[in-house]
């Protein structure tokens, strides 16, 4: 009976024997165990401590039994009848305590798992709104916690909440798509679609497939919105190629070619309006570049259409620059046009505009109107041009007819020196033998002409390296034009 009473962890057997030291040891041991074990946590009480405490209980039970057999206790019959049942009832104390502790420990585990779930939720919230390249590692850490809770602890309260959290995860990462920020939506939607290969399939269910339609639409919208946008990030070709590669049979893939043609048509129409042809041509060039970098044969026809629109735009841009008195830019644009499209019916006109622009850059009056696209009919007057100066010289002219000629250097010609104080020196140029001077003959329709002669640097010269002049060509006359160089004494 004394031994059984000591098994209650309360040392009651020793109390009955009035062995207060033994009772105190039981109380101290039990109190120490309670201090260490409570409150219950996930790890519980160390196994060594439990084994030691069990050995201690068996020892005090054996010691109590030994002492009880030797003791001469005066106990009434009624107490004896109650003592044994009492000892057995008191054995329920450690057993009940163990069950209660187990339940408390299970609750501690549940709370720890719920805390992990809360931390993962916080990660998803903190990453929302960040650029995806920075947010993705945070999302993946949260996803790893969700997967562990949903698979390894599926029966826990936290594990049962994981499916709802995955729904929130998908909703959060799909938010750019919901806001129609299609380019920003591509990366997170690719991430969601790719989870099927990295996360437990049973846990994900059908969720990865739900990203297909939004991803296809985002690739389409991001790509078509970037058509004609210079330095678009990402380029239109990148998004549209990804659409063709990932969803080749999707409705969005079939919409690409009509969308491209519509973009070309819009800008071609804008060229006709003529409000900003140079900017529009830049957009068409960017659009053509995107089409050239696309891999699907469906856009080959549109690519050729875009190339034709760019050619049309280049010419429209050059004429716009000329009319806007941007003669230097007009000359550059039209010169490049003639090089890029030598077989174009407008190549000759482009060269004429480039020549007129160069003259107008020196003599703005020459740029009052575009040079004509064709050559006028009717009579032509002869103009013989001679070079009475050192170095090769180029003569540009524009009027009813536009063109340029180059005269070889006169090997025996020198500069005509004039006194500093002479205002209008009388120079008798081109008066030597006719064979002395390199010559060229122009046949010009009647009208007013602007000329610009361009000569390589010849040192100090009153004429400079270029010189502009005007001449009126009248019917029935022939003309001579002597080009020479002067310098000061």
Task: Encode the helix/strand succession as letters.
Answer: HHHHHHHHHHHHHHHHHHEEEEEEEEE
Helix content: 55-70%
Our Rg estimate from Cα atoms comes to 50 Å
> Please, what is the oligomeric state?
single chain
Distance between the termini: 143 Å
Low-pLDDT ranges = none
- Give the helix tally: 18
User: How large a portion of the residues is in β-strands, by DSSP E?
Assistant: 5-15%
* Mean model confidence by pLDDT: 84
Helix and strand composition category: alpha/beta
Strand line-up across the major sheet? 3-2-6-7
Number of strands: 9
Principal-axis shape: rod-shaped
Major β-sheet profile: 4 strands, antiparallel
Question: Can you walk me through this structure?
Answer:
This protein is α/β, with parallel strands linked by helices and 489 residues long. Helix content is 57%, strand content 11%. It contains 18 helices and nine strands. Strands 3-2-6-7 form a four-stranded antiparallel beta sheet, with helices on one face. A three-stranded mixed beta sheet has the order 5-1-8, with no helix packed on it. Strands 4-9 form a two-stranded parallel sheet. A hairpin with a 4-residue loop joins strand 2 and strand 3. Helix 14 packs antiparallel against helix 15 (277-292).
């Amino acid at each position: 009976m004394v031994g059984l009473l000591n098994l209650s962890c309360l040392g009651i057997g020793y109390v009955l024997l009035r062995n207060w030291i033994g009772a105190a040891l039981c109380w101290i041991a039990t109190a120490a165990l309670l201090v260490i074990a409570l409150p219950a946590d996930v790890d519980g009480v160390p196994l060594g401590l439990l084994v030691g405490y069990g050995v201690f209980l068996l020892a005090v039970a054996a010691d109590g039994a030994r002492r009880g057999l030797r003791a001469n206790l005066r106990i009434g019959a009624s107490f004896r009848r109650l003592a044994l049942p009492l000892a057995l009832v008191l054995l329920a104390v450690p057993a009940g305590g163990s069950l209660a502790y187990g339940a408390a420990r299970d609750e501690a585990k549940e709370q720890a798992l719920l805390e992990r779930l809360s931390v993962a939720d916080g990660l998803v919230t903190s990453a929302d709104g960040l650029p995806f390249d920075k947010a993705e590692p945070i999302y993946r850490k949260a996803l790893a916690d969700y997967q562990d809770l949903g698979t390894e602890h599926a029966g826990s309260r936290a594990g049962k909440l994981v499916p709802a959290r995955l729904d929130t995860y998908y909703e959060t990462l799909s938010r750019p798509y919901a806001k129609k920020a299609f380019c920003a939506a591509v990366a997170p939607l690719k991430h969601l679609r790719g989870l099927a290969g990295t996360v437990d399939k049973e846990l994900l269910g059908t969720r990865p497939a739900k990203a297909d339609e939004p991803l296809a639409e985002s690739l389409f919208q991001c790509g078509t919105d970037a058509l004609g946008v210079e330095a678009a990030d990402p380029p239109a070709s990148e998004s549209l190629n990804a659409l063709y590669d990932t969803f080749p049979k999707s409705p969005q893939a079939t919409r690409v070619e009509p969308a491209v043609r519509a973009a070309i048509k819009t800008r071609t129409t804008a060229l006709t309006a003529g409000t900003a042809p140079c900017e529009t041509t830049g957009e068409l060039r960017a659009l053509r570049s995107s089409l050239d970098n696309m891999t699907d044969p469906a856009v080959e026809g549109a690519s050729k259409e875009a190339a034709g629109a760019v050619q049309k735009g280049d010419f429209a841009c050059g004429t716009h620059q000329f009319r806007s008195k941007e003669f230097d830019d007009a000359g550059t644009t039209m010169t490049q046009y003639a090089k890029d499209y030598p077989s174009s019916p407008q190549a000759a006109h482009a060269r004429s505009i480039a020549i007129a622009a160069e003259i107008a850059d020196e003599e703005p009056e020459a740029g009052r109107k575009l040079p004509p696209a064709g050559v006028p009919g009717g009579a032509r007057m002869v103009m013989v041009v001679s070079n009475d100066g050192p170095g090769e010289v180029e003569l540009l002219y524009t009027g009813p007819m536009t063109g340029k000629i180059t005269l070889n250097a006169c090997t025996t010609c020198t500069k005509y020196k004039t006194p500093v104080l002479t205002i209008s020196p009388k120079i008798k140029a081109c008066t030597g033998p006719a064979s002395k001077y390199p010559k060229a003959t122009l046949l010009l329709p009647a009208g007013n002409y602007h000329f610009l002669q361009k000569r390589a640097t010849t040192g100090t010269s009153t004429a400079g390296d270029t010189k502009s002049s005007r001449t009126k060509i009248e019917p029935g006359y022939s003309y001579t034009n002597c080009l020479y160089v002067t310098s000061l004494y």
